[in-house]
From TrEMBL:
GO BP term, pick one: carbohydrate metabolic process
CDD domains: CE4_NodB_like_6s_7s (cd10917)
Name the UniProt record assigns to this protein: Polysaccharide deacetylase family protein
Region (Disordered): 1-44, 149-169
GO molecular function, one term: metal ion binding
Domain NodB homology residue range list: 100-280
Biased composition (Basic residues): 35-44
Record PROSITE patterns: NODB
Species this chain originates from: Duganella radicis
Keywords assigned by UniProt, alphabetized: Hydrolase, Metal-binding
Database matches in Pfam families: Polysacc_deac_1
Amino acid sequence: MDTTRSRVKMPCPTNQRMASRPSRRSHPAGPASRRTGRSHTYRRQKRMKAIALILAALAGTASAADCGPDKLNTERTIILKREGAAYGALQHSALPLKKGEVVLTFDDGPSPENTPLVLKALSDQCAKATFFLVGQNITQNPELARREVSEGHSAGIHSDTHPNLGSLSPEQQLEDLKRSRAAYKAVFGVETPAYRFPFLAETPTMLEALKQANITVASIDMGINDWIPEDTTAILAQRLKDSLDKSGSGIILMHDANGPTAKALPTLLQVLKDKGYKVVHLEWQ
Ligand SMILES: [Zn+2]
């Protein structure tokens, strides 16, 4: 299914250091100055909180005004348990979706060239998606990975180096998983809740390891075969229409690292809107 080659670069330790949280400094002075310090800190926190509330209110207003009925929007969110379940009717059970409901998923990023276009297209239509990130791309582009989540999308992992895991020894498979989980945790501060196999090529070793680690396996219901560089927007839109007509609902696989997909996404989202499809967003507990 997924034959896009990921852009994989060597991990950069500086980025990992940037991702680590600064430690809380203990107050160096005695009780009197500690009291003063505490009161100053309290006032500052209160001021910051007030500013944050105003900004949140302004953002809420803007978003409510922009996300009217002319937009695709996000119909509802399904919050999945952090457990070793597996979804996607191509290989596993289907998600509990109604006819006409789709989940948008994007693989192989983050890509500095293409992911920002995908984020803009999603934001313009108020649609939320799930990104399956390649570990080494996360390490190379930590800010872009964090931006995806800060804009309300969810993220899982898609291996560390995008190998066909079936061609690796069990030890190599587990090593790739370990590295990709570490890359995710270094940037997001939490364990990945979900995993999508490169090329959807599942192996017994990995399925068992993911189950043990309570990581959900995210397969797909349909795709648009978006890995050919010459694909035009019209071709991708037609493939999406054909897949929707065939499946009727489910998880759609696309690739945010793929240039033609990033370019076509405004049209693809319009196809969903015109055909009356509703976007369901996946989150994890
Ligand atoms: Zn992939």
